[in-house]
Design goal:
Elements (H helix, E strand, L loop, with lengths): L3 H7 L2 H9 L5 E4 L7 H8 L7 E8 L6 E7 L2 E3 L1 H8 L5 E3 L2 H8 L16 E4 L8 E4 L5 E5 L10 E4 L3 E3 L1
Parallel strand pairs: 3-6, 6-9
Antiparallel strand pairs: 1-8, 2-3, 2-5, 4-10, 7-8
Helix pairs in contact: 1-2
């Protein structure tokens, strides 16, 4: 494993700052940008899909628009219509568009990560927490972050939610 200084130099600067600030233990994984999408990344680099955690930004449909970042296993799908809507006070929600995601996070789809998004709520599906390790986005399409899921709890906006995701 690389030293923390070496690892941080390889990820997006905002992500690196967050990882360091909250003492998140992790390993940086390099990837080819065209292989950044979760299923393709796992197949190419030999990781189990159930050990990949996707960060999905959601947005309410009413004004003012509110955002949240949801972490779910790649083998599940976010229950946006029921569970996320319930959490966000019954407001209709949808997946944020790639443009909204980029504007809010500075990150492209395939590299979105909760590290550095402490200005919005972070909802983590409880199933993520049962994994021995998870792969998260690195804030760009050329890195991923490998960590124990308990590390997410170091983020001040993190909340573990039972049933946030449902099986695909």
């Amino acid at each position: 494993m690389l030293s923390m200084t070496q690892q941080i130099a390889e990820v997006d600067p905002t992500v690196a700052e967050c990882l360091q600030k909250y003492g998140i233990e992790h390993k940086v994984l390099q990837c080819q940008p065209e292989l950044a999408d979760t299923a393709i990344f796992c197949a190419h680099y030999g990781y189990e899909l159930e050990h990949a955690a996707n960060a999905i930004v959601v947005a309410t449909k009413s004004d003012p628009v509110q955002f949240a970042c949801c972490i779910v296993l790649a083998t599940t799908k976010l229950d946006a219509n029921k569970k996320v809507r319930q959490i966000m006070d019954g407001r209709k929600v949808s997946f944020a568009t790639p443009e909204q995601t980029l504007e809010l996070t500075g990150m492209l789809i395939g590299g979105v990560t909760p590290f550095g998004l402490q200005q919005i709520p972070l909802y983590i599906d409880a199933a993520v927490m049962s994994q021995p390790q998870v792969i998260a986005g690195g804030g760009n399409r050329s890195t991923k972050i490998l960590l124990h899921p308990e590390e997410y709890k170091k983020l001040p906006n993190a909340q573990v939610i039972e049933g946030l995701a449902i099986p695909k």
